[in-house]
Amino acid sequence: MPRSRRRSATLAHPDVSEFDVLDVLHALAEPTRMTIVKILLAERERACGTFPVDVAPSTLTHHFRVLREAGVIRQREDGNRRWSALRLEDLDARFPSLLGTIVTAYDRQLSAATPPLTGDHE
Fold this sequence. Notes:
Layout: H1 3-7, H2 21-28, H3 31-42, E1 46-47, H4 57-70, E2 73-78, E3 81-86, H5 88-94, H6 98-113
Antiparallel strand pairs: 1-3, 2-3
């Protein structure tokens, strides 16, 4: 199928009632996807090719698909760009505070794994 026809296909987004907690947890259980989620927590929407992650484009597409199919993000196409936005209100409606709890725990884990700077450089 020509690329132009594939791009025009409708993106599947689950209804809030279809969200499954295990799918959401799976989607969030990967560092690249957590980076995407944390960026979208700070920004309302972002073009898919502009996330600061070091993965191949096909891998990044896979990560977006996992997040979208779990209901974590919503994507829309505008011209030749695909935009992603976090479905925070929908997630909180289905699983109150789940995303915030996971992001907080992830940030704590990262902080604990990073040794503090001592200031001694001799």
